[in-house]
Amino acid sequence: KAGVTQTPRYLIKTRGQQVTLSCSPISGHRSVSWYQQTPGQGLQFLFEYFSETQRNKGNFPGRFSGRQFSNSRSEMNVSTLELGDSALYLCASSLQQGSNYGYTFGSGTRLTVV
Amino acid sequence: DQQVKQNSPSLSVQEGRISILNCDYTNSMFDYFLWYKKYPAEGPTFLISISSIKDKNEDGRFTVFLNKSAKHLSLHIVPSQPGDSAVYFCAASGYFSTGNQFYFGTGTSLTVIP
């Protein structure tokens, strides 16, 4: 079956702009989580959505937001981009919220802010 | 504050020998621990996990050990194979005020030399 699909794969934006990233989970998975990966910080949790509701939130500013649609697809939005937002953004899906059985990750969207 | 730490950014091992990847955590509220493996240009894939009520979990060539008193876990790969060359992330999860959250380490890049 198809894995987790993230689009676009690469993105270049300028400071101050906003960006929207998309994630399509594995069919049947209802939980979608977003992570930011940077070389020095590893993977940092942004938020988790389950049944169209944000269930968990990490320690990121309000410029980072997301939503989930009825088909479980999720979007992440970053407004007023800063240079430090340059990172690999990973989306992961699982059957259940807060699954301890491991998430399935997408290949990520590489965002570069110039 | 990095709650999950992988202090070795890289590790090189000869094919056939044992690879030991280490991970330390600071929060005693974590009750589940996972290891993920990541190849370049791909998202992390779930490898093995362990509950805090156990001290060892084995799956084929992969064994995870948990020492709760030391807040330390390790991943043993025996025997190591060239295809094991990847970045390994350890992760810890626990239920906090904002829900069940995962914290990842910064990763250890394993190179298995043929």
Q: What tags apply to this protein structure?
A:
heterodimer, A: 114 residues, mainly beta, B: 114 residues, five-stranded antiparallel sheet, globular
Number of helices of chain A: 0
Shape of chain B: globular
Strand content of chain B: over 45%
Helix/strand-derived class of chain B? mainly beta
The 3D shape of chain A can be described as globular
Task: Report the C-alpha radius of gyration of chain A, rounded.
Answer: 13 Å
How many strand segments of chain B? Answer: 11
Largest sheet of chain B, in brief, is: 6 strands, mixed
Helix-strand sequence of chain A: EEEEEEEEEEE
Strand residues, percent of chain A: over 45%
What does this protein structure show overall?
The complex is a heterodimer of chains A (114) and B (114). By secondary structure, chain A is mostly beta strands. Chain A has strands at residues 5-7, 10-13, 19-24, 31-38, 42-50, 53-57, 64-68, 74-78, 87-94, 104-105, 109-113. In chain A, strands 2, 4, 5, 6, 9, 10 and 11 form a 7-stranded mixed β-sheet that branches. A 4-stranded antiparallel β-sheet of chain A has the order 1-3-8-7, with no helix packed on it. In chain A, strand 7 (64-68) and strand 8 (74-78) form a beta hairpin. Chain A starts with a strand and ends with a strand. The N and C termini of chain B lie far apart (38 Å). Chains A and B meet through strand 5, strand 6 and strand 10 of A and strand 4, strand 5, strand 9 and strand 10 of B.
